[in-house]
Amino acid sequence: MTHSQGSLSRELTEAEKQLLLAAGWLRSRYGLMAGMDASKLDRENLEAFGRVWMGQHLVEWTDAYQSLVSRGYLSEHGGEFALTGEGGAARKTLEVEHPLWLYEYDNFFDAAEQSDAHALFCERVYGRNLCQHGLADLSQLDKLNPKPGTGARNSPPSNNSNPSLKKKATSTSTNTATAKPSATPTGIPPNAAATSTTSVSSRHGVYLHTQTEKATLRG
Fold first, then answer.
1. Which of 8, 27, 129 is nearest to 83 (CA)?
2. Are 145 and 166 in contact (CB under 8 A)?
3. What would the mean pLDDT of 169-192 be, rounded to a whole number?
4. 131 and 72 both lie in a single domain
5. pLDDT for the residue 20
6. Are 174 and 195 in contact (CB under 8 A)?
7. Residue 180: domain span
């Protein structure tokens, strides 16, 4: 069975989405960074992963285990779970509209919005507190969102913020097994093979995720 991105996202419950993502990522760098025990995909390890990466947005998964097994997305043997071929394909489809990093950013901005220290950091580094996350200063934001009658290329640097510009998170990453996202677009290699940008809506606004893939680094 194949799914479009939107239909799968609507079809799954929030608990099913979270469990599917956890089953796909526990044995990855996300599990390693959190010190997870990736030897077994049992409930204890999967839910420990959920507490770390879904954070305060974690929901109850009790019914999701059985529903994903019944639908053929997960298999279970002796209390251990594994993604089936169909489950792996569904997880990759889900990631386009509902990626794991969505929870990471939502949890970050939940905390950052309440942080006086982060507000002061943004004012001193970027010129104004827009709850930024290592992205762009005000002159760069003005170029991305030029005033009417001006072009982005010709818009001069400005210290005035655009009040209509809401928080938008942009990250640029090179597709390698160990590479971490680069903080600015200057990290894009000159011989990049392909660049794609995914827009994901969240409770904090719109996240723009730019993925740059280099053919020589693909497995």
1. 27
2. no
3. 38
4. no
5. 97
6. no
7. 107-217
